[in-house]
Amino acid sequence: MRHLTLVAAAVLAVASAAVTAQTPSADLSMKGGSQGTGKVLSFNDLEACIKQQMSLQERRPGIEQRQKEAEAERAVVEKENEALQAEKANLSGNERIVAFKAKMDAFNTRVNAYTERMDTYNNAKDKSSMSMVRLSKELEREAKALKAEEAVNKAESEAINAESEKSVAAFNARAKANSDLATAWNAKQPKLIEEADAYEMDRDEWRQNCANRRFREEDDKMIRAELAKQNK
Prior knowledge:
Layout: H1 14-18, H2 43-92, H3 95-123, H4 130-211, H5 217-230
Helix pairs in contact: 2-4, 2-5, 3-4
């Protein structure tokens, strides 16, 4: 039987697969006001803080959505990997192939025994003896039986090969498709992680410079009202 090659399973990038970048907690409230700390924010500084706050609030949902999509895609690849591993084991341990191999082993044993007996007959000095005549007839019958069985085995081998090639081709197509998904997933992870890291850095900066700073309530209301008008 011909040797058939199975495509390797898809591989997810180890670091990215283990931990998809996660955004920090969603708290983006300005807790300062009259109870905050440090120097009171000027009108312009407060406006910058509010704009940065709004920008962070707008960026966060998109990042979280892309992270959820990445997790879902990773789960699909891993689930298909598990299914492919099980399918690979089934292909390797196919009952029909195993049974045919055992059948061929038994056939080869018969062929070897026939060859040894044929050597005995060929090397006999007196082929006219009753034992040699009997052996000659037995070898003739065995040769016909082996030839007939060889034809049957050849047909069965061709049928199994055709079936195996079809199964392996289907397996390899699935494995390649899953590998392509894993490759695409891996390619997207650096950008996603970079985006989440940039968001976290900007958020930390905002927390240090804005979150607990004191500011005038009237400035806050005025700025937010004006920005709301601009965003309509």
